[in-house]
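User: Batch of two.

Assistant: Item 1 of 2:
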Amino acid sequence: FDTLDRLTSNLLLPAGGFLLMLFAGWFLSWPALESELGLGAAAARRIRFLVRYVTPTAIVIVTAWQFV
């Protein structure tokens, strides 16, 4: 049971977050996202940059850090 818990916590949850950020950053329609979140154009550009580049990179770094 401990192995399954460690696998889920340390690998599958970050992988799910990584895939979600890739989907939201590259495949989700940005006009739909802007209207759903109620963002202006400048805030949407910032969020888009964060979701596309910063967040997936941070998830990979934090996940890799656990295994070092």
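Item 2 of 2:
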Amino acid sequence: TSMASIMLAYADLVYFINPYVTLTGGMFLSPFGLYPERMHAPWMNKLPDAPAGMGNEQVIPETELGVQFRGGIPIWKIKVVYAMYVSNGPSMVDDTSKNAGKLMYDNLVDNNKNKALGGRWGIMPLPGNPSLEIGFFGQQARVGQDGTPHAGVQAMLYGADVTFHHYFRFIKGTIDMKGQHCKVSVDKVYYKANPLEIVNVPAEDVNLNDSTYRFNNTTELYFVMISYRPTASEHFLKNTEYVFRYDYLKEPAFARWNTSGSRITMGIEYWLDSRSAFKLAYQVGMSDNIFFKNQNMLMFQWVIAF
């Protein structure tokens, strides 16, 4: 026998209503900050891996299944961009596994009758110059499974981002800076657990009568990345880019899925063209959880986009 699988990242239909409004329907990239829309693809990301909480172990949404309105509006000499959407939103794990209380974003068949409401507003404050953009974003949704004790559990996700891209003559190159800060807050409720696995949880949050416990279910994460590319060079150096990133993930202290920690990543990238590059990076990871070791890692990636 043979097996095959298909992974669908996103697929949507786009209708341009007018120069200021575009309608999108389907599975689209989430406007939840910079990373999902502008950095998720390997050829967009200047380093071989994603910031903590934004890669394989998703803490924030990367795609949405729903409908979105977006566009840009000039106001005086500045520009405001916006995206507003209705989607299935995330679902919360409420079984007895170690992931109880964690949000999952592959909610293709909505686990409840509620829909998530979200959006992002960005402002380009420099008149006639799009090099600087500051954004604010958020999403609110009911995440509990209908017909369960957790059916009414709500989640609030929000944050801010900034991006700056500019050529400086005195350093004969281009500086690119990006940063994003997010918080994910879920109602504090009780979950089933083995009493032996929650011995460190405060007594007031443990119910031994039915083997349940609760915790403050708030996650915080952020990253700051800066790169320099000597674009004025006449030699091969103009195709190199030097990258530094600091990222931090703080998950709930008493969640059994807590993998909190910070990382420093330094790398060099050689651009073959605008959508293809070689990347070499070294990462130092520092865990906040005593059950996880600090990790140092050398990474290499060759990315080609068609």
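The mean pLDDT is 91.
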